[in-house]
Sequence to fold (419 residues):
Amino acid sequence: MTPRGWAVVTLVGLVVLLIASSALLVPWHRPPAPRADQLAALRELPAADVARSRAFHAALRPGSYGALLVGLLIALVLGLTPLGGKLVDLVSRPFGEHWIAQATLGGLAVVLVADLVTLPFAAWRHAVVDRYGLSTQSWGGWGLDLLKSYAVSAVIGAVALLGFYAVTRFAPRWWWALGAAGAAVLVVLLSFVLPVLVEPVFNRFTPMEAGPLRTELMALAERDRVPVRDVLVADASRRTRAVNAYVSGFGPTRRIVVYDTLLREATPDEVTSVVAHELGHAKDQDVLAGTLTGALGAAAAVTAFYLLGFWGGLLRAAGVDSIAQPRAFALLFAVVAVVGLVSTPAQALLSRRVEARADAHALDLTGDPATFEAMQRRLATVNLADPDPPRWEYLYSASHPSTVERMAAARAYARGEGR
Ligand SMILES: [Zn+2]
Fold:
């Protein structure tokens, strides 16, 4: 069988694995709480708060969707015309168009152009967040964050680009197999390494100070039989008033992080409720499952990209001889942009199901639906979340159940349902 034949077989296998793993790992059996309960919950929220959060999201939308649309357009223009290849030539010319310069500088230049074009939209969003009093960051601090994230992406991007195009260069027939394996390994590695190496670039993390709350949280983890080495507090207040908590990494790098803003805004019982939700993610190995799904997806994407290289019309449009050459990076970038856009609703759906399971875990573990509901109200009020967002937006991108869904789930639990 030819490499192309093997690639087809591999792609089919990876897609089957992806479908099987999401069928097995994602809790599909838990439908959202009845709509009538959600609407009842919505009516109890202060109308002024709901109106304010809706105005906030309406003001954000041009910035968000503008960036999405313009980012996609620029990716398509660079990828599906010879412009992308010409840009790679231009920046690698001082280095005699050496393939290493094409791969790293050329690739980064394509990404940078897209970033710069969408920068005004990001600034728009920051201005809105600032106007609504959610940000505590000056424009200087915002700009510095932006530069830091460019720097981090440039380092990771350059390594990935160099690795990828070294493989396509030195294994011209089988690069897709090595590339697929490499992409999968990179996803797993980043999941380990990002919390430890990259998160500290943006925030300071300190162990939660000793006291009744810390004792309570460690006891909660113990009762839940989830090994937690520490609960860390992030100094999110230097950037935002929003409250949040999350769990990242897995194995030895797994950590539960709460924002310092959460400790300031919420009662200790509410913090316990939030951490109980995060323990649910840890207990169900959600980060590990997400990482493995991401690794399978990355491997499938590289294989599919190789097969796309047999489409002559596409190569002619991009003005390249082969999809595997650095000059064709903009084409890769365009494919990633389209796939990202199309797969967002599916990723959001999987995420919402996993989040609903963590909520159920929090309710079971604390047995305190009243505090859970109070916490959801506080999250919505402080973070200016639309408690019941428009359906299309929810289906397209909501990573969590809506506030009214989460409140209704707590009420269903209180009635003895869903245990
Ligand atoms: Zn969660």
